[in-house]
Amino acid sequence: MATGALAATPAAADAAAPRHAAAAAYPGPGHVTGDVRMHDPSFVKRPDGGYLVAHTGNDLALKTSADRTAFSNAGVAFPGGAPWTSPYTGGARNLWAPHLSHHNGRYHLYYSASTFGSNRSAIFLATSTSGDSGTWRDEGLVVESFTSDDFNAIDPHLQVDGQGRWWLAFGSFWSGIKMVRIDPATGKRYDGALHAIAGRGGGAIEAPTLFHRGGWYYLFVSFDLCCRGADSTYRVMVGRSRSITGPYHDRAGTAMTSGGGTEVLAGHGGVHGPGHQDVFADTDSDILAYHYYADDGTALLGVNWLGWDSSGWPYVH
């Protein structure tokens, strides 16, 4: 199983974890093999075992793994293309930043359609009973943004709260991270409410990931810049709230709507710009998955164990 470079048990690593790890102290990504070139990975554990991964790529790229270590190409979600996204992509087939989940016997795939630097964007939903290439059914538009809006409808993440309500977080740059409630029956918006949950006053923030643990909702985001190869400055930040709609605060008490965020992982050594993270519970540990850039600019999958200190804040090991 892929774990961090520190080969301690989770319990031992918890006890030894510093309250604030310096960048130089971050462990390297765990050992992974096979087809591990990817941006914006999203994992789901398959009911029959193993993992399905979706990531940015033409027609939405898919990978599979039996053990979270060896990964294989599993084709694309839409082999015939996704022409319904063309008004947002300008006809390009590259679709971004998907989020995978599994509910009631069906895989749900939220994904982004846009062009670089534009907030004329949309999030769509597709579903499948198997998750296999070519089996995904277009369920249509979920949320869109216009150039007149102060938000950007990309980077979706679906989270079910403790009351069984569905929520979709999303956002990139502009005024930051937003959230809408989702109707479980349709996968579409439940109402017109738009919640603001994080922002940096127009600065670089995107890729929200929600994770529920110990009565807290944790909001992981990526600060700074992606997609510049080894010059990328992405880093993973976090805050938490007792309510899924916020307010979220970092360890120092700063609101995430005011630029707050506690660093979880940043570039170190030959790991450049780690970010667009996914967080999920597995049998051996909670897991942080992300992409990073090698020295030659190749985008690669990173997978680490995610530990929690005595105050309930996450750290990578």
UniProtKB/TrEMBL annotation:
Coiled coil: none annotated. It holds the Pfam family Glyco_hydro_43. GO terms for biological process: arabinan catabolic process. The keyword Hydrolase applies. The active site is at residues 40, 206. Substrate binds at residues 40, 117, 152-155, 172-174. The record marks 155 as: Important for catalytic activity, responsible for pKa modulation of the active site Glu and correct orientation of both the proton donor and substrate. SUPFAM superfamilies: Arabinanase/levansucrase/invertase. Pathway: Glycan metabolism; L-arabinan degradation. One of its GO terms (molecular function) is arabinan endo-1,5-alpha-L-arabinosidase activity. InterPro entries: GH43_arabinanases (IPR050727), Glyco_hydro_43 (IPR006710), Glyco_hydro_43_endo_a_Ara-ase (IPR016840), Glyco_hydro_beta-prop_sf (IPR023296). The record marks 276 as: Important for substrate recognition. Keywords: Glycosidase, Hydrolase. Belongs to the glycosyl hydrolase 43 family. This is Arabinan endo-1,5-alpha-L-arabinosidase. It comes from Nocardiopsis sinuspersici.
